[in-house]
Structures are given as structure tokens and as C-alpha cells.
Amino acid sequence: MTETRTLILVDGSSYLYRAFHALPPLSNSRGEPTGAVLGVLNMLLKLVKETPHGLMAVVFDASGRTFRDDLFAEYKANRTPMPDELRAQVAPLIDAVEALGLPLLRVDGVEADDVIGTLACQASADGIRVIISTGDKDMAQLVDERISLVNTMSDTSLDRAGVKAKFDVYPEQIIDYLALVGDTSDNIPGVPKVGPKTAAKWLNEYQTLDALLANQDRIEGKVGENLRSHSADVALSRALATINTTLELAVKPPDLVPRERDVARLRALYTRLELRSLLRQLPGADAVAMAGGRADVDTAGSAAVATTTVTDAGTTASTAEAATLPPPVERHYETVLDATRLDAWLRDLERAAAFALAVETTPHDQMQAELVGISIAVEPGRVAYVPLAHHYPGAPVQLERAHVLSQLRPLFEDEARNKIVHHCKIAAHVLRNNGVELRGMRFDSMLESYVLNSTATRHDLDTTARLYLGVEAIAYDSVAGRGAKRLAFNDVPLEQGASYAAEHADLALQLHRTLWPRLEAIPPLRQLYDEVEQPLTHVLLDMEHAGVLIDADMLRRQSGTLAQGMLDLQNEAHRAANVSFNLDSPKQLQDVLFGKLGLPVQRRTPSGQPSTAEDVLEELAAQYDLPRIIMNYRALTKLKSTYTDKLPNQVNPRTGRVHTCYHQAVAATGRLSSTEPNLQNIPIRTPEGRRIRQAFVAPPGFVMMAADYSQIELRIMAHLSGDESLLRAFAEDLDIHLATAAEVFGADPAHVAPDQRRAAKAINFGLIYGMSAFGLARQLGIERGAAQKYIDLYFQRYPGVKHYMDSTRAGARERGYVETVFGRRLYLPDIRARNAQLRQYAERSAINAPMQGTAADIIKRAMIEVHR
């Protein structure tokens, strides 16, 4: 029996836009944008790999008008012009596609959809299986028994049943569906107020648009009126939404045979664009070393940035991220099910100066997760996984957890024996809950990655392995399933789960061996790891494990008080609007604020609706009562839902306390963050917030102690800038905002007006965060010119601050990073970006990051000392 041929048709235009908007901004060392090129090429290479012997074409829109523009002058009128950063990537992408040997099509006068539709229908008629790779919902009209859609960015596919499940209509009804719903991105009118559910309901009842229009008098309500009054528009919308499948093309499906790759051309292109992950895939990649420049995104959604640094001698050297990847490691993973093999591994561990470990648990928080298994590794590729609690039917007999832990305890608790773990704190929590103290937590590959370059990537195991090792880690979904069928790890069969678990210890060890030499090569970063981040792990472990005691009854009473306050504000809002409405409904709030009351629209949402975001309400609240009431209502709602309602339910039943999680490797500046629950952002400036803080209590015989620094970031600004006036104000213990006001406005400190002090305070803190004259004007409620005058006066009085800011921006542009007082590097990948908005944001970060980062370093050092 002859195997059915497959034709892959790639909607290049759709994927170019989606890759551009979905992935982080990425550029090479010359500032050329590369992210969209890389995203599309990764998608193409995946398709080629999955269908190696198929037919294939990549189809792009041609420039110029199409027949749809002739049908409707306003077609796609809502679309913004192609961004310059995207337009610059079209030519190199086309160059790469041609070098890959993939047939590339652009046909004048029609869209890519029509070319794809024609080829797909021709192929289907010839018995060829067709896969259309696109993110465009319009293509669903082409699906039949041989044509399906695949979206490699979301890893989803649609056949006939899938179209029905997604849209609640069949492929042959999609054109009618689109004609009713319309398309705002293409400016296809559709019928006002008719959404996907209504359109699907009508088509399920009447089957076709023509039958619906024949019975339009039977449709009741406002949507029926809209259908009748816009029936002429529906015919136009249907014509615009219909893909032309009868084009006369110069090629036929059998002609779309990929050619041999032009490796030399690809190597030159990838080298110029600095796409390291693609270079590695070319023949002879081991000999290619990428020196300097930016790294890339190995797969959709994972950004990696490498920058150029300047050594003490002044010579240019590439950072750790730009180094050549280590060679692949051959894997020998063993599942340990008997005591003899465990003893053999214990002897190996005893002989090792350091070893890596990883724990596997059930999917609960770190204080309640059940230990399912432990992985141990002494050298790369050689790992043992010791399962302890896989409970699925037919699971093999496993060693007793108590026995295994008793055997491992002497090694795990030996402070002198160095351990390597990716995210030590979690493993230490789980082991502590099982009676084992993990000591000797010397090397944490997550923190090594974070200290080396906090902005290069996320620092989870999968992403760091992808960036620094070139390894695509086993995905949990591949062993445990997805959605409702997803298994807890103790239910995952060992033949699937063992390699997944063993890999965690293996990758931690490999990452450490790759990252540690790079840290050692930069002494300030090695010192930062040794003196701040690694010791802080022990502090955070103890803080999290101890938890905090709350008065749950007090919080429940506060919930009742907040609910009454919300009701009072709701009634006040109804009186102010002279109408009852749902304060939690953005749509109803839009109608009241901008329709009924006619308040000025400050900003619109992407869909064109007036925004009711917090900053918009804040601007309106200066002049109108209702926005102020809404803001107060939202503040109480957030306190109630986030804290007073939720915290009592987050008390651990075993400890009777709330246990948050403090994250070390998230904020680029080194700041800690708190989640599940967030205990860092409980308001202190409002009475309601202060009352919530009162619910955090100490047990009998203990007290709560708070330790903090006064105006730490302003003091750091004085230190970094060396400005004499600023230093003198702090040395003399003056009210810094009063002193600034006196300097800026030339007033006697005793006669500084409250508004002047308020302006000085806004400038002091605003400049730290890179606030512009526009932002200052909005905050103070003054004209932009007056705000600029305040800033100019400030810099005249504090010239050292101006010099520091200018020299910091210049240094950041030259080196690609800024540093804290303690040597923490904060890389700024967009500091030389062509996009002015990205570049200006990076420049503001260059000013702010050293102060925020230094403050974070000082706080962390204080935490370590207080803990000791």
C-alpha cells in the first residue's frame, strides 16, 4: 500500500507577526532585531523534523493591494503599520527560508490565505494529506477529511471535530460564522452585538447564513434588529472572509519539494544575526564559537541575552552566556529498587567531594508536599533515582522511605560535604518535613545562573538547561499528561517518571560545572554569591519554615467590616451616578462614566473601549467624585479578597501558621518577592491596611520586631553621585525632602510651603525611578513646563546627581550593564535598541537599577546578620 504524501503549508505572515508579539524583544550586538526571525525559524525546523519527507511551502503576503481592498476600501484599515523592528526582520527571514531550501511563495494581488487555500484544496483533491501551520482562525474554513490546521506556537491542532469543538460550528459554516461575528483586526464589519456564541447558536439552528437571513424576522431582541438593519453588510463580510481556493498559480502541490540546505549561507546568516541555537544545529557546529554579542531564544518563550563586557585591562571579552556550549553528555540513569544497589550508590557518594541531588514530590506547596523520590548524581550522565512512593496499580515494590532516609541522612546532614541542587530551598523544605536537615547547600545552580546574569533568562531548571547546556529537558506534561488527565507524580509509572526525575539531579550537576567557573572568573559576582545569595538561602528557609502566626478571627471580623464599607461605597457610587450599576463590571462602569456622565476619555483599550484602569481613574478622581469612589471601592475589594478572606484559609493545618514563599531569583535587581501568599505588599498607609497588619501576632512570651533603613535609596543616590549638598543633608540628619525643597526653591527651610516639600519629595523619588517631566506633572497636577522647571532647578542645585545620571547612561550604553555597590551586574539588553521606547526604558532602568539593587544587597546582608 502506497503511503499518503503530506503537504505542509506554512502561513509565514501569520507566524511572523505572532512570533514578533509573543516573544521578548531580542537583538544582536549591533542592535538588529532578531526575535521574530528566530521564532519563525524554530517553528519551521520543528515542522521539517516532524515531517522529513513531505512537501512544503512557506507563504507570505505580497506587498500592495488585493482584491479585498477593491471590495471594501476600509479593509484592514484598523491595522497599525508594521513596526520598524518587524519590517527589518522580513528580509533576513526570507533569506533564511530560501537557504533552508524551502519553497517560498508570494503572489501579487492576493493574500497568503488565498495561496494556501488554493494549494490545500488542490492537494486534498489529489489525495494528499495537508497540514496548514497557522494561527489564523479564518483558515478553519479549509478543514476537511484531508486538511487540518496546526499551531506550533500553542502546540494545538484542529481537524473537523476540533473546529466544531473550538467554534461550535463545522468548517463549512466558518465563512458564515465570520460574516456574522466580523473581525476587528481585518475591519470586517459583521453584525453589531453578535458574538461567537450568538453566531454559533444561529448557525446550529439554521445551518447556513442564507437560511438565517430568510428567517431574520423571527430573531427577537436587539440582536435581531441589528441583523435586519445590517443584512447588506453581512454579504460584504462574507465575501471578505471567504478564502479564494481557485487561483491560477504557477506551481502545483507536487512541485513543492524542499531542496538541500545551503549550509554555508545559513552559517553566515546565523552568525551575523548571532542565533547560537540555530548555529549549533548546523554540521560542524562544535567548531563554531560565538564570541560576544547577544544570545538567542532556543524555543518560543525563552529569552537568553548575552552581552559584551569590558575587563579590568580594558579588553573586550564575552560574558559567560556567550561561551560555547559544553558537549552532550551520554546518560546512564538507574532506578534503584533494592538495598544492594542503594548501598553501592552510597559508597559512591561517600567518595565524592560533592554530589547533586533532587527531590520529587506530590503537587502541593513546599510545606505539605509528599516526598515521592530522590535523585542523586556524582558525575554528569550517571544518576540514580530512588523511588519511594509511586502508588499506581501495578507499581513495583520500592524501598521503604524511612530506610532510605536513614541511609542518606549522614551524607545529607554533613555540613562539610558539598551539595549541588537547583533551587536548594525547596529540597531542604521537603527533606526537613521528613526529618532530614539538608546541610552543606554550597552550590545552587539556580542562584549561580541568577547571579551570573539575572536578565538572561528565567532561572528554572528547564530554561537554564536550554540556555547554558543546549539541552531540552523532559517536560512534565510528557510523563504526567495534561488537563483533567494530568497525574500527580506518585501516580506516574516509573518507566516514564524515572528519567524525568533523574534528569533533575543530572542537569543541576551539569549546570553547576558550566556556571561555577564563569562566576569564579568575575570575582565581584563570586563574592556576591558567597556572601549574599548562598547564605540568604538558609535565612529564607528558616523564615518560610517557621511561618507567621495570624489571628484568623480578627481577619474574619475585618472581612465583615470591609464588606460593609464596600456596600456603603456602592450606595455612594449609585447616588453619585444617579443610577444603579455593578461596580465590578468594566463595561457598566464605562457606560456610566463616559456615556451617562460624559467624563473625558483618558485612554482606550486595545479594542477601542474607554479604559477604566487604575491610573485613568486616578487622573479623573482629581476632578470628579465617582472615580474617587470607585478607587476606594476597589482598594477595599482587593484587601478583602487578597487578605481578610484568603489568609485564614491558607493556615497550614499541621503548623497552624501561614507559610509564604520568598523568591530569590525573580527580580532582576536582586529584590526578594513573596507569593502564596504575598506578605510584602500589605498596605501600611491606609487604616484598613494597618488593621490587617495587626492580625499578624506573636505567641505568648514572644514579640514582633521590625528592622528597616530610613530612606535607603536616597542615601544610596547620595553615595553614588557624591553630590556635596545631598551628602551634607544626610550627614546633618536633615529632613531630606525639606532640604531639597529649600535648595530647589531657594527658600529658608523654616518657610518651605507644604506644596514645595511635596514637589521636592516627588522629584527625589521620581528621579530614582527615571520619572520624566510628563510623569512629574501628572503626579503633582501641574503643567509639564512647570514640572520641567522643577527638574532643571533640582539639577542646578544637585549637579552631582545630574553628572551621575548622565555618566551612568553612557556607561550602560558602552558596557551593556550597570552594577550595584557590591558588584551585582544588571544587564540592559535594550540599552542600544533602535526602538526609542525600549531604549528609554532601559536608560531609566540604568539609573534605577544600581539604587534598587544596592538597597536589595544591603537588606539581604542585614537579614543574614540578624539571622546569625
CATH fold topology of the largest domain = Nucleotidyltransferase, domain 5
- Decide which structural class fits the backbone: alpha/beta
Count of helical stretches: 34
Radius of gyration, CA atoms, in whole angstroms: 31 Å
For the termini, the CA-CA separation is 76 Å
Q: What's the count of strands?
A: 20
At the fourth CATH level, what is the homologous superfamily of the largest domain?
Ribonuclease H-like superfamily/Ribonuclease H
Number of domains: 5
Uncertain stretches:
286-323
Name of the CATH first level of the largest domain: Alpha Beta
Give the rounded overall mean pLDDT: 87
Strand share of the residues?
A: 5-15%
Broad shape: globular
Strands of the biggest beta sheet: in what spatial order?
3-2-1-4-5-6
Label the CATH architecture of the largest domain. 2-Layer Sandwich
Largest sheet entry = 6 strands, mixed
As a percent range, the share of helical residues equals 40-55%
